[in-house]
Design a protein that fits this description.
By secondary structure, the chain is α/β, with parallel strands linked by helices. The protein is built from 24 helices and 22 strands.
Length: 691
Amino acid sequence: MTLWELSDPCSRVRGIGSQLTADLGSIGIHTVRDLLLHAPRSYEDRNTPVSLLEALQQDVPANCLLTVLRHEYIGGRSGRRTLKVLAHDEQTSVSLLCFGRDFLANVLRPQTQIRFFGKVSVRYGEVQAGSFDVEPAGTDSRGFGRIVPVYPLAGRLTQGVLRKVIAEAIHGYADHVEDTLSPELRKSIGITPSPVSTARAISDLHNPRRIPEARTARELLATEELLLLQLRTHVDRASTRVAGAREARDLPRGLASKLVAALPFRLTADQTAAIEDIWRDCSSDTPMNRLVQGDVGSGKTLVSFVSVAFQKEAGFQSVLMAPTELLARQHADNAARLLEPFGVRTALLHGGLKGSIREALLRALAAGEIDFLIGTHAVFTAAVAFRKLRLVIIDEQQRFGVAERTTLRQKGLVPDTLFMTATPIPRTLALSLFGHLSVTTIRTMPAGRKPIITHLARLGNEQKVYRAVDAELAAGRQAYFVYPLVDGSGSLSLKDATAMKERLEREIFPGRGVGLVHSRVPEAQKAATMASFTRGELDVLVATSVVEVGVDVPNASCMVIEHAERFGLSALHQLRGRVGRSSMQSYCFLVYSDELTEAGKQRIQVMHRTSDGFEIAEEDLRIRGPGNVTGMEQSGYLKLAIADLSHDIELLQRCALIAQNVVDDDPGLLSPEHSRIRDALKAYTRTRLSE
């Protein structure tokens, strides 16, 4: 059995009861495989001796033998006493502050020797340590004399608990793990100077004898995962080409031409090229799998509507999936306005649609009386059936998991699939992660758009921002105010949308109409507020990041994001893209706190420097890593267990080439030499589809 087939629940591991099972589940550890692949975030070298003096001079943890001199208790401001233990090595004395660990009085007895590991520093005229590990020197060592893993933690989990249960999992399972990759595949990828088995890699990941062994182990396991990821996409593409073969047929273009001719503007060159790509794909004997990526406001949705016109004229149905009801409603309104005058019958399906209205819509859909369905996750339910579905459009594709996208495609007649994203994806990732898709990029913006002017303002200087926004409101424009929280948090001193809605309405813009939308607002109320803002009945819309995607109000000229350092680069760029959607000048104000992390400072500077979404995506890749850039970690599409694409881009690209060659030679991985990787791929696919 390969590593990827270890699907036993982690409760099977000795020492893991119901409470610990729940604690492990809170950090995503559910199976033995998850436990074995819970990689250390760092390692502590408790093998190399480091004296107290050397630790102070080199700013590294000390790792040495100490002799305990005496105990005492010191008082704190709250009246609680803290155990303080004075100890020394051959050169230096140290005070061990045992915060909340009075039990150490029984371990650190005067005149006994102890093993010590921890950071030391000079405070209040003495050498002190407040966070450390110790054990009696005369006993068999449990945590010294070796390289010790340091794991990511959450909740009640401790390093000691994780080290113990992972050691049990290695003992019970790792020795029985078979290699996933054949010697030939390993050699072709060239990942290790001296090949090690998968079982040995698991052991070395958690208990390396030397740090380089841990790096080699992680690289081998990451390679297995990335190769399985690439094999999955290439096998899917190969099977689609075979099983989905159909008769080539040029789709009619008359209806689409009428739609484009009736627009009050000309399509950009990139939009025209994208439409040609889609028409050619949909007319071929192989179902389309195309990703259209473009910056916010570049006109991707209109391209998809023209694609619907191709299918309508050919007698087929289309469906568009949106990640939120807010976005689905906007797409439905635009589709009705643009397509229904040309005979395209549109409908909107969302979770709030109930009873006889929903039943009537489903009957009409199954009978072919609806040409274009726009919906949310409600479209996935078994009751939703089409008569002749041929085009599946998935908007903001990174927000949907693999299983969801597969379910929707299975409702059609070998359908064409069009993925859309307004989160530009760096070229290296687009080629490697979406190798099974054809990629079209829309870079040019519609004519007449002016670049959005971005201003930075430190928290405390908001009044200048409010005055600038007030001038825009006086000119008949509208504004968004976005906050990181719905309501106040006792632990975070941040402005929140609920309280600021009241303040903006009462103090800052008295007499102006101010609306509020966030994730806790009922969908009907949210839709009503958005409709009022779109019609110009509200001057200011206060929101959280729910307005990040798809909201299109051409009259809105100001976007104010308070505590901007709390948002990721992609979110900031998407939010800024809610303005600048007409020919008038628009502005974005990023209000930031003085308490900036280095990453937060970099994000603010990038936003101020450029409005190019593709440049921003490259910076986001550098700062945060690709799963966050594309949103795929959250969607389940790229929830990697051991690989880290912040560092493994070259490895991913090598795996992509190997996977392509393997699948070209053996599309079904049916040959005997691929038996293990075929079984691993099945297990890996089940894992991804279940996320």
